[in-house]
Task: structure prediction
Amino acid sequence: MSSAEEPSKRLARYAPESFWPSSLTKPIQYVREKFVLPFRQKERPVYYHRRFERVPTIDQCDIDDPLCRYEANVQFLRDKKVDSAILKILRRRLTECNAYWGADALHKCEKETETLKENMQNWYIRYGEIGYNMDVLEYYMKQKHRMIWLRRRKENGETDADYRD
Amino acid sequence: MPILSTLRTTASAGVRFAQALVQKSQQTKVPVRYMGGNKMVVRPSRFQSQQLKDDVFYFLSLGIVPLGLIVLYTNVRIGPAELVDTPEGYVPEKHEYYKLPITRYISKYLSFNSIEKYHERSLYYLYKADMKRKAKLEQKKVRQLQKSQVDQKGWYYVPIQGTLEQREQSYESFKPNKKV
Result:
């Protein structure tokens, strides 16, 4: 069931029309096309993606400036959500690759696995093992401790212990 | 056992036996005289449970039916919005950030605060608390310095004003009323 499969069969097996079975989607689609779409207004409403400006990060804030700290906190948590969404997309790519290639996935999906592994490691370095609902200072201190740890290892003789951003 | 008892057959016993064989769930085992047409069947009341079902259905549909019709109408006629890139130099209004038509309506006509306003309000509360804290810290420091370096009159010092006679006149108002 591996490389001997033809591309058309592979595509049909991997990419069904939708997640749900057609016995469920066909009547719903019929109702939508007959009774909903003809009555829709021609001028469709439109919505935009909300944009946030970049504010100073926590390392650029004064110690006695709570406003700067609050905004840096909000920005950091937003960035954490964005990075989690990026990881989701990469994971989805890998699962699609695996589903498509089936038994060949081990040597056909190496690029996707490598990118996912690297990005998961980076996410863990930055956001991992902190706990639920924490302030940005926790993450800042984690970075500081990591830098100190790497410096100590370097002093002890391990030359590849460099801090990479 | 029932077979032995039917050896002593009378008409009523035979009817009872027939009923036991048929075993209608609604009927209790009561001797019935077949007199005429429709009979009242004696059974436990189902009024309460039926009334409960009716009331629950009624009160649920009081809410579901009008709201459901409104939602149906908006989704058929107007429908959800489509995501579009913001044009250059254009600042969308707060109701243009939402997808569903009812949410857009609420944010356009029924809400006066936007997300930015909530953010600014939080910043204001933080600012106020920060100002109070800083003022208290300064006062603490001032009192501490006054205690340690005893070199000036305190900031709460009120100097004595006027002559002794003038002051005694003002003290008259604080004395209790004398009885003559």
Notes: Chain B has a mean pLDDT of 85. Strands of chain B lie at 82-83. DSSP finds six helices and one strand in chain B. The longest strand of chain B covers residues 82-83.
